[in-house]
Write a structure and sequence with these properties.
The protein has 62 residues and is mostly helical. It is built from 4 helices and no strands. It has one domain. 63% of the residues lie in helices and 0% in strands.
């Protein structure tokens, strides 16, 4: 079963960046799309923001 939300570790895998940068990136995306701190960021929102193909990202993660 696939997840809907993206976590810091997932961002690290996809981008190759550090944990600290990955947390920052998630926070930045959530701020720009108008999500509150307690709301999750979906894989689709993450991919749309970075211009990545959702299917390719899901293939890497799952």
């Amino acid at each position: 079963m696939k997840r809907l939300v993206i976590h810091t570790k997932d961002v690290m895998i996809v981008t190759g960046k550090s944990e600290r940068y990955s947390r920052y990136l998630i926070k930045k995306i959530k701020e720009e799309i108008g999500k509150r701190e307690h709301q999750y960021l979906t894989i689709r929102e993450f991919c749309e923001y970075l211009g990545l193909n959702t299917d390719e990202v899901e293939e890497i993660l799952f």
